[in-house]
Amino acid sequence: MSATGLFSGDFEVLIARLIADMDGVETRLDAALGACADAGMPVAMAGMLDFCSDVLQISLPDGERARLTGILTEHFGECDLLVADHEIEVPRLFVSDMDSTMIGQECIDELADFAGIKDKVADITERAMRGELEFESALKERVGLLEGLEEGAIATCLDQRIQPVPGARALVNTLRSKGCRTVLVTGGFHHFADPVAEQLGFERVVGNRLGVAGGALTGLLAGPVSDASTKLATLEDERSQLGEGARVLATGDGANDIPMIEAADYGIAYRAKPKAREAANGRIASVELTAILKLLGIAESEWVEDFDPA
User: Fold this and answer.
1) Which residues are annotated as catalytic?
2) Which of the residues 121, 140, 187, 252 could staple to 97 if both were Cys, CB 3.0 to 4.6 A apart?
3) pLDDT in tens, 22-75
4) Positive or negative torsion for Cα 103, 185, 173, 275
5) Please, what CATH class does the domain formed by 14-84 belong to?
6) Are residues 140 and 221 in contact, defined by beta-carbon separation less than 8 angstroms?
7) Cross-sheet strand order for the sheet of 81-84
8) Taking Cα atoms as reference points, which of 3, 86, 88 lies closest to residue 44?
9) Percentage above 90 pLDDT, the chain
10) Start-end ranges of CATH 3.30.70.260 in the chain?
11) What cofactor does this protein call for (predicted)?
12) What is the 3-state secondary structure (H, E, C) of the chain?
């Protein structure tokens, strides 16, 4: 099967791409196509991408994203998926959350372990990421609990606890090699985000700053709070510099990522909390972030771990 050259007209289409388990794929695809037809969304073309052989593309002249996503989930399970209202292309801007998205940990929870209060802080973090607590007050409460912790614990935490998600570096650097600007924007802290960004290849970092005095955390933030509105403002500011029609990719996992996910052309929820999943038009249920490259149609032969802009 081939999904190249699907349409030659100018009209909008609904395009879905998913990373399919090839076992019984044709039977499941036939059932999904029938369900789409029954829902009044006949499929114009379906097939595997020539350049990403495990990516199935389904194209409809018209349709409802949420309904199509539901049908594909019913027949293909919780697979990696992206649905767009245009032909999918490589974005010009990539804006990403950090904690539990580019790295596998929540930095403040791991740092709290050095103060012996991880369980207490992690409970607040989980509730905030689910959207059950207001972000700024939850952030300040957690930071306040760290008052008096030696600043050196941050470097130790970074060295011993913080690890990138598999495929993070390849995702960032491959996109950069394609001319995409990369920005890490986090409700976490520059103490962590700056070295993570350098390791992964991000060009800009936006985040919070921990207050430090006398070699210990003050329990306060230094400067304004980086929250959901900051993430959205960063995305919009960066997009405005690229010109009309520039496609934007955003990834995140929590409630404070929802505004930027909704504003992006490709808003992808990575192993996300329910509210973030519902807001997204894409999702990664597997572990490897390189799944995003596949959904964008970038062949594995073009992936790079390092990119030198010079």
Assistant:
1) 97, 99
2) 252
3) 888 999 999 999 999 999 999 999 999 988 889 999 999 999 999 999 999 999
4) positive
5) alpha beta
6) yes
7) 45-48, 55-60, 14-19, 81-84, 282-284, 266-270, 248-252, 93-96, 181-189, 204-208
8) 3
9) 90
10) 14-84
11) Mg(2+)
12) CCCCCCCCCCCCCEEEEEECCCCCHHHHHHHHHHHHHHCCCCCCEEEECCCCCCEEEEEECCCCHHHHHHHHHHHHCCCCEEEECCCCCCCCEEEECCECCCECCCHHHHHHHCCCCHHHHHHHHHHHHCCCCCHHHHHHHHHHHCCCCECHHHHHHHHHHCCECCCHHHHHHHHHHCCCEEEEEEEEEHHHHHHHHHHHCCCEEEEECEEEECCEEEEEECCCCCCHHHHHHHHHHHHHCCCCCCCEEEEECCHHHHHHHHHCCEEEEECCCHHHHHHCCEEECCCCCHHHHHHCCCCHHHCCCCCCCC
pLDDT tens-place string over residues 155-205: 999 999 999 999 999 999 999 999 999 999 999 999 999 999 999 999 999
Q: How far apart are CA 268 and CA 262, in angstroms?
A: 9
Q: At what angle do helices 152-161 and 190-200 cross, to 10 degrees?
A: 40
pTM, to two decimals: 0.93
93-302 CATH pick, 1.10.1200.10, 3.40.50.1000, 3.90.420.10, 1.10.150.120: 3.40.50.1000
271 φψ region: left (φ > 0), alpha (ψ -120 to 50), beta (else): left
